[in-house]
Structure formats: structure tokens, C-alpha cells
Amino acid sequence: MVLAKTTLFDSDLQEAAQLYKALGHPARLQILRYLADTKSCITGDISEELPLSRTTVNQHLTELKKAGLIQGHVNGKRTNYCLNPEKVKVLKKIYKSFIEEIEANNLEC
Amino acid sequence: MVLAKTTLFDSDLQEAAQLYKALGHPARLQILRYLADTKSCITGDISEELPLSRTTVNQHLTELKKAGLIQGHVNGKRTNYCLNPEKVKVLKKIYKSFIEEIEANNLEC
DNA sequence: AATATTTGACGTATATTTGCGTCAAATTAG
DNA sequence: CTAATTTGACGCAAATATACGTCAAATATT
Fold this sequence. Notes:
2 copies of one chain form a homodimer. By secondary structure, chain A is of the alpha+beta class. Chain A has helices at residues 11-22, 26-37, 54-66, 85-103; strands at 42-43, 70-75, 78-83. The first copy, chain A, binds a DNA duplex (30 and 30 nucleotides) through residues 1-6, 25, 27, 44-45, 52-56, 58-60, 62-63, 74, 76-79.
């Protein structure tokens, strides 16, 4: 690779790719779904919901946080992870414009 | 890693993650956008549209093909890459159910 | 038939992701 | 205060992704 060429692309493409990438692992999708299903924030023991160790789950949580899709609030001994509605909005917007661009054409070969 | 634990997840999560993953690189997004913008199929020289070598672009094309988002048709010396509308439909469906699940709740911490 | 173009296959190097165990700091409970 | 719980930081190993050069097969051109 030598150099990370990712930065050579339009910033909107970079932002979009970063978000999709965050969604690109079943564990992270399951975490998000779990958040939605239980209608609550996460307090620690999500690792028992996943077939992965606590350490690994924590890593996925960190990545979702880095992507901005969830937020962590420390609450004493526990940490509460919650969805970030603002970032979900951004995702929706990005996806919408992407799919509209794609859908606009019925390509024939 | 030792073992790929990806297979331990629900197949729908796996399928979704695989699609999002394919979208998780700016080069691949740009390729898809280029396909849409030019309202045509790709015949070879997309690498000139990207800040990457032909070899690398070809690799990204292969990945998009593997994900099913595009199809390649050999046409003599050239190869035509086209969007696969069926897979785009699948993506839309997957994304829709995902975002609806997420959106259903206004989580408060 | 000989040459040029186009493409994917292959190999390689580096970067990143994935997964886990261990440990230490912070916090809570007893 | 001491012991237990919870979490993130750190390090490590293996797998994947990213990027590219080179080469060979297929096709088109001359």
C-alpha cells in the first residue's frame, strides 16, 4: 500500500465510505439492532448477546463510536452506549443521494 | 483472529454487512457513481477517472462484482461493467428494514 | 502472420481489521 | 478500607484489504 490513498478522493465519498464501512461487519449491525430492539441503551453486557468476547465487542463499540453512530456516556461503573440520531440522519441523507444517483438510470449493456 | 467468526452471525446480518462492506471504500463508491453519472457501462479506462492504478481499480471492480453490485460482460477485447439493478434492489430492501428498525425508537439515555 | 491493446491472474509489500487475553484504573458493594 | 465488578488500554497473532508491477492470454489492428 505504501500510502493510504483514501485521502485522494472527494471528501463526501470519504465520509460515505467511512459510514458504510462501519456498517460492514455483522457484529456492529447486531449491536445497532440490539440497541433498537431493546429500545434502550447498552450497559456493558452486550458481549453476551454476541458470539464474541467482551474485548472484541468493546472494540466494535469503539469503532461505532469513532464513526459517530453511537455515543458513550459514563454512568458510574457502567458505560451507556446510545444511538446518535444525528449521525443516523447523516447516513440517511448520504444513502438517499447515493441511491437516487444510482436509480436514476436504467442501464443497458 | 484464528477463525473467521463472521459466520457465527445471522445470515441476514452477514448479507447486509457484506453489501455495506462493498460500499466501504471511496474508490468503489466513485466507480458506482461514475457508472450512474455517465449513464453507461464501463469499458476499461475507468482507472483514468480514479487516482489509482489500473491494477488496483481492477481489483475494486472485482470486489464489486463479487458483491453482485455490478456485472461484467466481455465484449471482444473490452469488458463492459454494468450496475446490477437486482442487487441494488436487495440493497435498498436491506437498508430500508435496517433504518426502520433503528428509526423506530427515539432512544434517550 | 506480426504487432499492439486490453484485461485478468499472479505475486508481493504494507496497512488495516479482527479477535482475544491480560492488566490497570475507576467505581461500587460489603 | 477491602474486595469485587466494569471498562478501556495495551499488546499480540492471524486474517483481510489495499495498492501496485509484471506477465500472459485473448482480441483487434496492420
